[in-house]
Amino acid sequence: MSKNHFADVMFPFLRGLLPLVLSLFLCPVWAASPPLVLAFNTFSPWKTLDAHGQPSGPYVEIVKLLAARLDVPVQYLPCPLQRCLQAMQQGQADLVIGVRNSDDRDAYIDFLDPPYAAATPLAIYLRRVDSRKVRRYADLYPLRIGVVEGMRYQPVFDADKQLERDFAPSSLSNFRKLLAGRVDAVVINRRNGMELLHSQGWEALIREQPLQLPAQEERRLGLSRRSAWYARRGRLTAVLRGMLRDGSIARLLAVMPIAPK
Fold first, then answer.
1. Backbone dihedral region of 150: left (phi > 0), alpha (psi from -120 to 50 degrees) or beta?
2. Which of 127, 121, 156, 128 shows the shortest CA–CA distance to 144?
3. d(C-alpha 3, C-alpha 219), whole Å
4. Distance (Å, rounded) from C-alpha 81 to C-alpha 87?
5. What pLDDT band is residue 261 in, cutting at 50, 70 and 90?
6. Measuring CA to CA, which residue among 198, 106, 92, 95 is closest to residue 152?
7. Domain ranges of the chain
8. Which CATH class is domain 122-213?
9. What DSSP element (H or E) covers 96?
10. Which pairs from 155-163 meet CB under 8 Å and 24+ separation?
11. Rounded to an integer, what distance in angstroms lies between the CA atom of residue 77 and that of residue 87?
């Protein structure tokens, strides 16, 4: 092959290769790392929507700070809890926050150490016009209990097949069903329940019961095992530890409004 013929063959190839080589050197630094996609469901007061309908609240701020320290953008996938879990299972989202661990979820979500917050006990609510009292666990058996589809509450409660459960897409829906007499009781994270009742002005209509179900697990950030970030989870946990160590997470959680007593 002559030198001229060789040049005629190779020049178009090299010319086509040049843009690819340049893109590798000239692209932004964070392009090597994908964005963090947060599967977002509301869970007041930790995960809410602001006046413009955008995700907000302390848990959202934790994820935003994590992404900022990783130098990557955050994207949000709004979804009810069950759909958020499906997105994590399918690798459509990278992270969940404020979601309880369980054996079945552990198959597709890696709940990262260290935990970022302490657990909160579960409360039971009845209508004020209902004279029954829930003082001990056995008092739950005669009741039709509103629960959120896909939510894990507490191991003993979740495994109890004698309890009558009525499923809804959200805790707010459960409270509406309670007021309408379609369920007898609602079980909910205590802080979440206080916040919802206060925001809706239902405190005079619904009362908390003496029984509380003790919290079992500290709160952990969940990473999809099918996420592009799963191979880089060491970076995530290192940054998370730094945020705990320097007090950033404590400061973000401290700005939550105080729930009414």
1. left
2. 127
3. 68
4. 10
5. very low
6. 106
7. 30-118+218-254, 122-213
8. alpha beta
9. strand 95-96
10. 155/216, 156/213, 157/122, 157/187, 157/213, 158/102
11. 9
According to DSSP, residue 90 is labeled H
Q: What is the pLDDT of residues 11-26, one digit of tens each?
A: 555 455 555 444 444 4
Tracing tokens 């730094």 back to the chain, one arrives at 242
Average pLDDT of span 58-82: 96
- The SS3 of residue 54 is coil
pTM for the predicted model, two decimal places: 0.70
The amino acid that residue 158 corresponds to is D
Joined together, the tokens standing for residue 76 give 């949000």
CA 100/CA 214 separation, integer angstroms = 14
Instruction: Give mean pLDDT, residues 226-244.
Output: 97
Cβ atoms of 215 and 188 within 8 Å: the answer is no
> Which one, of 129, 133, 151, lies nearest residue 142 by Cα?
133
DSSP states of 180-242: TTS-SEEEEEHHHHHHHHHHHT-TTTEEEEEEEEPP---B--EEETTSTTGGGHHHHHHHHHH
Helix/strand/coil for 124: strand
CATH topology of domain 30-118+218-254: D-Maltodextrin-Binding Protein; domain 2 (3.40.190)
Tokens of 8: 């005629």
CA distance 166 to 178: 11
Report residue 205: phi and psi, to 5°.
Answer: -105, -20
Amino acid at 42: T
